[in-house]
Structures are given as C-alpha cells and as structure tokens.
Amino acid sequence: MASVIQPPPQKTRRSRETSSPHSATVLPSKPKPTAFSNPTAADRRRWDNVSVWAIGWLAIAHVVVLAAPFTFTWAGLGVALLLHWITGSLGICLGYHRLLTHSGMKTYPWVRYLFATVGTLAGEGSPLDWVADHRKHHAHSDQEGDPHSPHDGGWWSHVFWLAFHTHDGDRKAYLQRWVPDLYKQRGMRILDVLFLPLHLATGVALFAVGYGFGGLTLGTSLLVWGMFVRLVAVLHATWMVNSASHLWGYKNYETTDDSRNNWLVAIVAYGEGWHNNHHAYPRMAKHGHKWWEFDITWQAIRFLRATGLVWDVVDYRTASEKKATKPS
C-alpha cells in the first residue's frame, strides 16, 4: 500500500553476480520490463533497479527513532499521536487511498489538495507514486505483477519491495499508465517535487515550536517524536495492510486474492484492516461492513459529508445494492 519518493532513473553499473540459488537476493541486471508489463518480484530485484533514495529515506527515519527513549516528553508523545492520526488516517487512509486512488467521494479542489498534502507528510511518497502502486496492486492483487504480494515473502510485502523501483526505469510512462488523471494535474506534480522540502519544513517547524516553549530539550523531543517516531509508526501501520492483511484474518467475501479482515490492522491503520471488504468493493468509502467492524476513517468521512465538504460518497448501504454493484 505504501510508496516512497522515486527520483528519475540514473545509470548504474551492471552487477557481476551470478543467479545461482546461493547468490545474494539482488539479481544481476537484465532487460528492463516496460511500464505496461507485470514484472515479478524476481524481475525487480536487480542492482540497476535499487531505489537508493527510498532506502536512504527509510534508513534515516529508523535510525533517528533510536533516540526516542532519550528524548521522551509527554508533549512529544502527544504531538506524535496527534500527527499520527492526521497524517495516517486523514492523509493516507482518507486522502491518498479512498479519495485519490478509488474516487470514493467527490470534493472541492482545495479539499482534495489539502488531503493530498497531508498525505505527503506521512512520508510514504508523493501522491503520484503511492496511488500508482496501489492501483497496480488492485489490478494484480496476489498475482504476477503485484508490487507487494506476500506470495513473494512476508517481509517483501511489508517493506523490502520498497527497496526497488516499481517503475523499472521509466517512471513517467509508469505514472501515465496508472495515474493519468493525477499526472495531468499540475498541483499533483508540484507535490511530487515538494516531498522532501515539505518534510524538512515540518521538522524545522516542530523543533522551532518546541524550542520556543521549552528550549532545546522540548525542541529535540518534538522533532524526534513528532517527526520520526510518528513517521515510522505510520509507515509500519500502512505496511501491515500489505502484509498482515493478506496473511491473517477472516473473509466476508470471496475474492480472487488473499485479502483478509484483520482487527489489529484495523486499529493501527484506522479502518484499513477491513481489507477483504475493501478488495471486494474497492470504491466503497466505508471499509467496515459488519456492525463490529469499526472504521474511524469512515467517521471522518461522515463528518465531512455532514459539513458539505464531500459528497456523492460511495456507500452501498444494503446487501441488495452490494449484489447489484460489481466490484471495480
């Protein structure tokens, strides 16, 4: 489900490794698939397809988190929890996923860009990359070409898939294939460029606010907890949708993939863990279909609908409507 910023492809040296069963996971260079092909995990694990930017970004975030025990404050924890909900639930689950990817509702352009910007601050890549990868996931879920299926390994689906480009060297063609609607929007392309600057500005702002109210100690705490602890927590919560929700849980619907409803993922990922429901009806903005399947992101959508900020929300209220509407 998650993606990470992917810069324009660069020329790299070919590896001299062999492809024996005992060689490294990363395979030798081979002809690159096109944006319209369905490369397997093995196809993508090439030295010339390694995403240095993604590895560096994720590595830095996880290394900084090691300072969390030494920079703890209650204010830092509070800011981290608040921003976790804002960027995780409102930014990723509502903005990136249910609004941009699946068009589960309609809204004003400024609301659309607001949620896209908040989603960008979750650290999972620009709207273009994230939505492209997720749409391809739905098109090939747990089949050849799925960017992150547990069929290729649990840890692959959770995180390792991010170490390799999904566009296989032609990012523009990949985006034009999977997100033509977003790619033609200048604002979305601007957010693509602003991914790192927005995070740098957020880090500076958190430190400045903390420093202003409590000196160096509070400034450092807000930076580490509000920025990096929160970011890593949101990343792993989202990644659990890709991994755990395709491995463990129950099904309400028979689908062509291994999607499951997982209550733990539903808690940490703000309703996204009702994943089998979602794969059965991708455009449905409400992911919890049983009375006990609580979906906090859906509650935010209900509030937005009540205030008139979103409308035409896709919500198949009855079983008959669900049966009459084919999954897209």
From TrEMBL:
<dbReference type="InterPro" id="IPR015876">
    <property type="entry name" value="Acyl-CoA_DS"/>
</dbReference>
<keyword id="KW-0812">Transmembrane</keyword>
<dbReference type="Pfam" id="PF00487">
    <property type="entry name" value="FA_desaturase"/>
</dbReference>
<keyword id="KW-0408">Iron</keyword>
<keyword id="KW-1133">Transmembrane helix</keyword>
<protein>
    <submittedName>
        <fullName>Fatty acid desaturase</fullName>
    </submittedName>
</protein>
<keyword id="KW-0444">Lipid biosynthesis</keyword>
<comment type="similarity">
    <text>Belongs to the fatty acid desaturase type 2 family.</text>
</comment>
<keyword id="KW-0276">Fatty acid metabolism</keyword>
<feature type="domain" description="Fatty acid desaturase">
    <location>
        <begin position="73"/>
        <end position="293"/>
    </location>
</feature>
<feature type="transmembrane region" description="Helical">
    <location>
        <begin position="193"/>
        <end position="216"/>
    </location>
</feature>
<keyword id="KW-0275">Fatty acid biosynthesis</keyword>
<feature type="transmembrane region" description="Helical">
    <location>
        <begin position="222"/>
        <end position="241"/>
    </location>
</feature>
<feature type="region of interest" description="Disordered">
    <location>
        <begin position="1"/>
        <end position="40"/>
    </location>
</feature>
<keyword id="KW-0560">Oxidoreductase</keyword>
<dbReference type="GO" id="GO:0016717">
    <property type="term" value="F:oxidoreductase activity, acting on paired donors, with oxidation of a pair of donors resulting in the reduction of molecular oxygen to two molecules of water"/>
</dbReference>
<dbReference type="GO" id="GO:0006633">
    <property type="term" value="P:fatty acid biosynthetic process"/>
</dbReference>
<keyword id="KW-0472">Membrane</keyword>
<feature type="compositionally biased region" description="Pro residues">
    <location>
        <begin position="1"/>
        <end position="10"/>
    </location>
</feature>
<keyword id="KW-0443">Lipid metabolism</keyword>
<feature type="transmembrane region" description="Helical">
    <location>
        <begin position="50"/>
        <end position="68"/>
    </location>
</feature>
<dbReference type="InterPro" id="IPR005804">
    <property type="entry name" value="FA_desaturase_dom"/>
</dbReference>
<feature type="transmembrane region" description="Helical">
    <location>
        <begin position="74"/>
        <end position="96"/>
    </location>
</feature>
<dbReference type="GO" id="GO:0016020">
    <property type="term" value="C:membrane"/>
</dbReference>
